[in-house]
């Protein structure tokens, strides 16, 4: 059978009527043999067993019918990031080609793992691609992550509480990876530490904001210096120290606070659709356009800031926007979440659903975790196919 493949620019490759052409199929009943002519192969120099073959005729593969059996396929080779199968077959004497059947893949199923580098810090890690949910009821916070339709969950979170033995000092983060999990994992393990090291000894709001910026940029540079890294991650962090709340973000992870029951966004999403972000990108030689109704940088990425994205680093910067405020009695709780929530649930809806569980407690054994799950389930019920991560942090504990 002569085959020609039509190559197109479509991201989705699908068969069409133009995919297969010049088919030649010869059925020879007396010998019960099927001959497939492959015109792209070199002609055979000799074929004494076939009276129709000649040095000028196309090379033929002969399949004896019925087949003699199936030969076992060679073993699959597993790499660190991919699985590849290599199959080599040779025709035995007489021209019969034995078909080889690929072996079945046995995918292990396991629970999500948590890696705690120290007694204070918890970093969510889901190395198994099959992990669909991660939940944690921590010291003064709760978080729930649910995988979307991807093969691997790309969201991560981190939490460091009881800093320096002081329960009123902590730092939290939610990280939404894209193009793989490496950037989100790296940020979850390093960003909060780099921010804390940078803010030591800083007092004024300007100094603190500049220190947080250095923490983000240091993390970004360290990730890009790693070997074989790809993809990126949006980030939102919330640091509490001496009654002050410092919220920073790069990308479209968002922080929303309940102020007496009213939702107040403490961060602004970094997307190419923002006028100031689009102007910054175009000023530096990039372009922004829409694809399937979504604004993208260079026709590719739908966020304009974050950790990683080395191939777009000229336009996708890691510099965060930071907001600092003093916690008072009206500040009830904080929601940190990935865009998997915010694309389907409004700020006020999220506060209304979480508030009964965060203010005044409840009858549930783990009220904060129940609230996180309710928010995630609401977004999923509205059609979100993205990974969804929600972290709730009551603020009265830090006053």
From TrEMBL:
One of its GO terms (molecular function) is protein serine/threonine phosphatase activity. Residues 42-58 have a biased composition (Low complexity). Residues 140-395 form the PPM-type phosphatase domain. Residues 41-62, 117-137 are annotated as: Disordered. The keyword Magnesium applies. InterPro entries: PP2C, PP2C_BS, PPM-type-like_dom_sf, PPM-type_phosphatase-like_dom. Residues 127-137 have a biased composition (Basic and acidic residues). Its cofactor is Mn(2+); Mg(2+). It catalyses: O-phospho-L-threonyl-[protein] + H2O = L-threonyl-[protein] + phosphate; O-phospho-L-seryl-[protein] + H2O = L-seryl-[protein] + phosphate. PROSITE patterns: PPM_1, PPM_2. This is protein-serine/threonine phosphatase. The lineage of its organism: Eukaryota, Viridiplantae, Streptophyta, Embryophyta, Tracheophyta.
């Amino acid at each position: 059978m002569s085959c020609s493949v039509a190559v197109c620019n479509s991201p989705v490759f699908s068969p069409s009527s133009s995919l297969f052409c010049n088919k030649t199929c010869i059925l020879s009943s007396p010998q019960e043999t099927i001959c497939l002519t492959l015109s792209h192969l070199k002609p055979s120099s000799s074929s004494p067993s076939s009276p129709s073959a000649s040095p000028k005729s196309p090379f033929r593969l002969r399949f004896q019918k019925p087949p003699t059996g199936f030969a076992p396929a060679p073993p699959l080779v597993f790499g660190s990031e991919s699985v590849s199968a290599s199959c080599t077959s040779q025709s035995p004497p007489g021209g019969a080609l034995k078909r080889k059947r690929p072996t079945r893949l046995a995918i292990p199923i396991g629970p999500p793992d948590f890696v705690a580098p120290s007694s204070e810090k918890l970093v969510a890690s889901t190395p198994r691609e099959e992990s669909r949910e991660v939940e944690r009821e921590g010291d003064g916070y709760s978080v729930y992550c649910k995988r979307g339709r991807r093969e691997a969950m790309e969201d991560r979170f981190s939490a460091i509480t009881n800093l320096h033995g002081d329960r009123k000092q902590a730092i939290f983060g939610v990280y939404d990876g894209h193009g793989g999990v490496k950037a989100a994992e790296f940020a979850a393990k390093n960003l909060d530490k780099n921010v804390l090291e940078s803010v030591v000894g800083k007092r004024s709001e300007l100094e603190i904001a500049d220190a947080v910026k250095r923490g983000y940029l240091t993390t970004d540079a360290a990730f890009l210096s790693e070997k074989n890294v790809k993809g990126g991650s949006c980030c939102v962090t919330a640091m509490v120290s001496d009654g002050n709340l410092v919220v920073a973000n790069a990308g479209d992870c968002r922080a929303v606070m309940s102020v007496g029951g009213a939702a107040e966004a403490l961060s602004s999403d970094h997307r190419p659709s923002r006028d100031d972000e689009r102007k910054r990108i175009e000023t530096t030689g990039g372009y922004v356009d829409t694809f399937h109704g979504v604004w993208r940088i260079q026709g590719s990425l739908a966020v304009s800031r974050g950790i990683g994205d080395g191939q777009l680093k000229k336009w996708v910067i890691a510099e965060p926007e930071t907001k600092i405020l003093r916690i008072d009695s009206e500040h009830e709780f904080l929601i940190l979440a990935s865009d998997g929530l915010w694309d389907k649930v409004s700020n006020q809806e999220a506060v209304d659903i979480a508030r009964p569980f965060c203010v005044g407690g409840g009858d549930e054994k783990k009220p904060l975790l129940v609230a996180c799950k309710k928010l995630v389930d609401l977004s999923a019920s509205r059609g979100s196919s993205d990974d969804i991560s929600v972290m709730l942090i009551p603020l009265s504990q830090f006053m």
